[in-house]
Amino acid sequence: MADTKKFLYVNRKAPYGTIYALESLEVVLIGAAFEQDVSLAFLDDGVFQLTKGQKTDGIGMKNFSATFRALGDYDVNKFYVEKESLEERGLTEADLQEITYEDENDDWAEKPSIRFVTRAEMADIMSEQDVVLSF
Amino acid sequence: MKIGVVVNEGPYTHQAADSAYRFVKAALEKGHEVSRVFFYHDGVNVATRLTIPPQDERHIQKNWSALATEHGVDLVVCIAAAQRRGILDANEANRQGKDADNLAEGFRISGLGQLIEMGVQTDRLVVFGD
Description:
The complex is a heterodimer. By secondary structure, chain A is an alpha/beta fold. Chain A is built from 4 helices and 7 strands. In chain B, strand 2, helix 2 and strand 3 form a beta-alpha-beta unit.
């Protein structure tokens, strides 16, 4: 596509207390059909969206955490997670679910989609984008 | 410059819909093109024509509708977000078997693709939210 832009979806909210996370994911899924260069950022409470072992039966809401693992099939495989946000919430990299994609440029080798970056690196990532959608 | 705008919060509870409105007006007055405004999350609630604020308060929905009729700004309401919150046009109300519709003049209901397309086609995308 001639009009390829760098899209960054910024996720800053925990997954179920508000609808932002779910409706952000809906934009990512629709946007995947537009063949843009897509990245996701997770910072502040947004890092809770990627935690493993989510169970939502008790609150009557749909658990959409598995959808993140499917995004690799739509060429959405750059998940930037801010290290400071994890640390501030007592989380470690091991608390997040494993999300991978198959690299078509490397004989479909399975690679991790999540990249852990510092707050300063996140600022650089944001400044490189054409379109930043913050949720 | 070609500008796209996103409104992510509902009227009166949050200033986002007011700030976006003022931004769009100012941009138009400066001679910029505002090709589309996309209403998402609770922002879709701006588009109900059943809003009746007290007479001495601003009428957010009517302000936006006037922008559409006077300046041709394309006001797009996300269909998935709208249906969750009970915002329907006549077609959709009919299709869903509902006995009423409430989409205000100047707004249209469409899909999230319109948001992505706006991001691709504009020089700047400005998001108003929490």
